[in-house]
Amino acid sequence: MKRIFFGIMILVMFVMVGTVLAEEAAKPASPEAAKPAAKEASENGLTIARMEIAGGVENREPAGVASTFPATQEKVWCFVEFQNVDKETTINYVWTFGEKEVDKVPQTIKAFSKYRTWANKTIAGRKGDWKVDIIDESGTVLKSASFKIE
Fold first, then answer.
1. What stretches of the chain adopt beta strand conformation (E)?
2. Where do the structural domains in the chain lie, given as residue ranges?
3. Does the reported pTM lie above 0.85?
4. DSSP letters of 54-67?
5. What is the pLDDT of residue 18?
6. Are 77 and 116 in contact (CB under 8 A)?
7. CATH number assigned to the domain with residue range 40-149, chosen from the 4 options 3.90.1150.10, 1.10.510.10, 2.60.40.10, 3.30.470.20
8. 74 near 123, Cβ under 8 Å?
9. Which residues in the chain land under pLDDT 50?
10. Residues 6+ apart with CB under 8 A from 134
């Protein structure tokens, strides 16, 4: 009787361990993995693979990527990488300081599988919360990034 009870207990433990392992395997590896991919697409298929706020651009890559910059920072750069651009299109960088739109910079994006571009904004010592929206021709916000000047 003890052998049967012991055998049933082992069988139950194997089933429980298997269930726990199956549940763990079904979970994403991290909270970041649970999020959708960073790519976002507009109605016309324009896809942003990467958007960074930086203190500069060097060798066609963002340099000094940060979310906070000192008030002595003269300019802040918004670097954007598009993927699979089907046709030439225009986007706008919309720079907002606090709740007020302070600049709108249009830029033509060429048809390429990978297209990197950037725009900058002179900060002029304006401390506070900033935001940059990338907007397509139809007025859709493709992606936004926020930063702070302290």
1. 40-41, 47-58, 61-65, 68-69, 75-83, 89-97, 100-109, 114-122, 128-135, 141-149
2. 2-34, 40-149
3. no
4. EEEEETTEEEEE-S
5. 53
6. no
7. 2.60.40.10
8. yes
9. 17, 20-21, 29-40
10. 48, 51, 78, 80, 91, 92, 93, 94, 141, 142, 143, 144
